[in-house]
């Protein structure tokens, strides 16, 4: 199993649909992240979870709702999205340097979900 | 927040050529990563290098933290090196990675 997996890889949805993106990390990390990458733009941080607790919400609209049931799983629930929300959504995980024996907080990324909102 | 500038924004090379990509940042950092994003969107870790020099095959990276820049060297480039190269940093006083806008590299056969 690769380090960070995401499903689905591609998603097309209408503006009235409700869907969820799933991320799973197999690296034993304690922090997980959602990023959004729009066309021709750098990655934008959306949410950060540390030990299942949300520690950052980067002014993300409420139509994006994250959920972190445990340190290995992260979801992004989507509802009433807009066409401008079409983007590549990337999940990442890392180990907090202050916990355990890790001396780096390298972030590892999943393959992403390419979302199209019609 | 911290500013991250990458240069050049676009680079076109012939296979076999060498190149240097640059990342400048505006504040002290305790995390700096270089990534390669392939055409399918996957971000591949290249280096974790908040300071010093590292090498991995044809790639090497150097970060001079006191002067707030990092360099990524690609030698004997191959067509599979094409894609976008991102630098990302975390400032010493912060908790999030901030990404640069990337360098789009195209290696022609």
* Average pLDDT, all residues of chain B: 95
The low-confidence parts of chain B are none
Residue share in β-strands of chain B: over 45%
Number of helices of chain A: 0
Instruction: Count up the helices of chain B.
Output: 0
Taken in chain order, the helices and strands of chain A follow as EEEEEEEEEEE
Q: Note the gap between the termini of chain B.
A: 40 Å
Main β-sheet of chain B: number of strands, strand sense, barrel status?
A: 6 strands, mixed
Any idea what the radius of gyration of chain A is? 14 Å
What is the helix content of chain B?
under 10%
N-end to C-end Cα span of chain A: 33 Å
What oligomeric arrangement do these chains adopt? heterodimer
Order of helix and strand elements from N to C terminus of chain B = EEEEEEEEEEE
What does this structure look like?
The complex is a heterodimer of chains A (118) and B (109). Chain A has strands spanning 4-7, 10-13, 18-25, 31-37, 44-50, 53-57, 64-70, 73-79, 87-94, 108-109, 113-117. Chain A is mainly β and 118 residues long. Chain A contains no helices and 11 strands. Chain B is mainly β. In chain B, a hairpin with a 4-residue loop joins β7 and β8 (69-74). Chain A binds chain B through residues 37, 41-43, 45, 48, 55-56, 58, 88, 90, 92, 104-109, 111-112, 114, and chain B through 31, 33, 35, 40-43, 45, 48, 86, 88, 90, 95-97, 99-102.
């Amino acid at each position: 199993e690769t380090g960070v997996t995401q499903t689905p890889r591609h998603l097309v949805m209408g503006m009235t649909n409700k869907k969820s993106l799933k991320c799973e990390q197999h690296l034993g990390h304690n922090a997980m992240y959602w990023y959004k990458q729009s066309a021709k733009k750098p990655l934008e941080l959306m949410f950060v979870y540390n030990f299942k607790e949300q520690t950052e919400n980067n002014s993300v609209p409420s139509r994006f709702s994250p959920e972190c049931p445990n340190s290995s799983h992260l979801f992004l629930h989507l509802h009433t999205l807009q066409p401008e929300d079409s983007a590549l959504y990337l999940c990442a995980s890392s180990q907090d340097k202050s916990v355990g024996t890790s001396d780096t907080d390298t972030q590892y990324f999943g393959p992403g979900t390419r979302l199209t909102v019609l | 927040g911290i500013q991250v500038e990458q240069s050049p924004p676009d680079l076109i090379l012939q296979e076999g050529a060498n190149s240097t990509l640059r990342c400048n940042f505006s504040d002290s950092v305790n995390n700096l990563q270089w990534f390669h994003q392939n055409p399918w969107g996957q971000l591949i870790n290249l280096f974790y290098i908040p300071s010093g020099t590292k090498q991995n095959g044809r790639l090497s990276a150097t970060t001079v933290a006191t002067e707030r820049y990092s360099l990524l060297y690609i030698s004997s480039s191959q067509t599979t090196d094409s894609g976008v190269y991102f630098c990302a940093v975390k400032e010493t006083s912060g908790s999030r990675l901030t990404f640069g806008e990337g360098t789009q590299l195209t290696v022609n056969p």
